[in-house]
Amino acid sequence: MNRVSVRAAGTLPYRLVDGRPQVALVHRPKYDDWSWPKGKLDAGEDWAAAAARETCEETGLQVRLGMPLPEARYPVSRSGLKRVRYWAAEVVGGEGALEHEVDEICWLDPTEAWARLTYARDREQCDALVALHEQGTLATWPLLLVRHAVAVARQEWVGPDPERPLTEEGQTRSRALAGLLRAYAPHRVLSSPSVRCVDTLQPFVAATGTLMVTKKGLSEEGFERSPGKVVKHLGRLLTTADPAALCTHRPLFGTVLAELRSRAAPSLGTGDRRLLSRLGTVSPDKGEVLVCLMQGAGAQARVVAVERHRP
């Protein structure tokens, strides 16, 4: 049986022109082919982080990941497979300067792109992006729910509980999270003031200059005193409808995910609905990011897709 020997990730960078999507293909002179920007994962790197990083390295474009697209698997040796995960990705910056193994980038409408692609396997992602656009679910904004990384155990800590720091394992995960969060490019970052939450987000904040705001209502102690405040903080993010990250603790996830379950779009898949329900009971892993892709704002904000990024 063939096994996955190469892990890679990429994107279909898109922009809307007169309400219609255009997608970016890259030409690699080494292979003389037209394909989607993609590349191998670095050691310990998250799939989504690699997708955004490789896109920037190959095209000079900064992207924000959106809806997941079909992955590709194909043989790269007699006994090995290459697995490539893809996302639709809105272009949010960059000058399009070619930087890495690419000599040309071309913006085309999906029909032209489908014909230009060298490999038939790449056309499945193109078809999926077109289908999302026709269904009205291509353009989204991300709400990133982060559970703090591994902290020193309560029984091993003698100071106030909010001051418990991350372990070495937790610090390693927080550094990895910087690339993962960057792939979704949140404009707003909210956190519990507890050290273990703040430090989970600190590498991302330091790398990007994004302002982090702490809210007592996102802490365990604040939740015990006023359980409704977390819903108010979440509601403000939904009203703003701006890409955002929220870092908090296990006891609060049940309340947060119950609110988001009530906002499931009719198009939300059964698996994603079950995931919201299950994680509302058992909570995400420490250091996990649960990506809720949203459409709309305020009372009309709806969850259209859910993805887990586990440590």
TrEMBL record:
One Gene Ontology biological process: AMP biosynthetic process
UniProt keyword Hydrolase present: yes
Classification via SUPFAM superfamilies: Nudix, Phosphoglycerate mutase-like
GO molecular function: bis(5'-nucleosyl)-tetraphosphatase (asymmetrical) activity
Domain Nudix hydrolase: 4-130
Keyword Hydrolase in record: yes
Entry protein name: ADP-ribose pyrophosphatase
Source species of the chain: Ornithinimicrobium tianjinense
